[in-house]
Amino acid sequence: MFAYIGCRTTRERNARGKGISIFNVTNNVWRYISTVHTKANPSYLAIDRTGQYLYAVHGDFNLITSFAIQADGNLQYMSEVNATGTNPVYITINKSNTFAFVATLQGGTVASFPIKPDGSLGEAASVQHLPGQDAANVSFAHQCEFDRSGNFLFVPTQARHVGYERIWVFAVCHKTGTLTLVDSVQSRCYSEPRHVVVSDDNRRVYLVNEKGNSVTYYEFCENTGRLTPVQIVSSLPETYTGEGQASAIILDRREEFLYATNRLHDSIAMYRINKHTGFLTSVGWVSAMGQTPRFGSRVPDSDEIVVANEDSDTLQFFKVQEASGYLTFLDKTVHTESPTCIVFNKA
């Protein structure tokens, strides 16, 4: 298996990254292969469903780049396209492997890009502009993530005082890339919705709220695309009175536990999921073992969680304890500069 690490590279981001770093992962041992120098800030990555191509959005700019994945895991640059808005922050591939979908934060857009026969991306086929509270402003899209059927796209947006705190739900046409709005659910004022994860049965959606420092649980109807909020829990301990910025949200592979990372508090919140109701109960908090845990993910085919600590230049690894859901630090650290995203590709 190969792991690809996105990062920040610019002085404006106080970054130390140099490009997309590539690791070979064999028997849970990470071996550095190379770093592919790219356009600035290859901050979020996606791999197509054939495992042959990798796409990067370039944060703070307006660009998506395409790469062919070589047999040894290295990347060969292919092409670039306009992202339709400033600061693309997320990219995902549809179930038919025909389109990539991209959310832009300051651009306030979510757009579809056709995947060409050679694996590169064409110019945007469909663009949805997410309106703000007046014509001069937008709602700030922080993610675009599919439900399990692949027929609906969830787009959490942040208001930042001029837009709307919402999850927008779009129906997807996989032939044309067209997005049709079917639902939007308002969040608490100043909560700043960030990322969602979806349960395997497609009935439950969990949202991490960046400035609200919380997780919201929604019930989801895959027939209509409707979301119904049913619970909000804090991502910070009740005795902590400082600032926080919640960031990543992770389901364990048995879907018995949920995890959310907290920047500034530099911790991981742990929750038990009631298997009958989906409701969350706090298990506690552990240190992220570094500064600014911006991203987290399951390691495929394991009970490990990996967290990218952007300002410590490290990936830190934790094991999910099967009975309690508590995370145990594995005393395993991978060094990589200003990490912001990790994607895996089986060799």
UniProtKB/TrEMBL annotation:
<dbReference type="InterPro" id="IPR011048">
    <property type="entry name" value="Haem_d1_sf"/>
</dbReference>
<comment type="similarity">
    <text>Belongs to the cycloisomerase 2 family.</text>
</comment>
<dbReference type="Pfam" id="PF10282">
    <property type="entry name" value="Lactonase"/>
</dbReference>
<dbReference type="InterPro" id="IPR019405">
    <property type="entry name" value="Lactonase_7-beta_prop"/>
</dbReference>
<dbReference type="InterPro" id="IPR050282">
    <property type="entry name" value="Cycloisomerase_2"/>
</dbReference>
<protein>
    <submittedName>
        <fullName>Lactonase family protein</fullName>
    </submittedName>
</protein>
<dbReference type="InterPro" id="IPR015943">
    <property type="entry name" value="WD40/YVTN_repeat-like_dom_sf"/>
</dbReference>
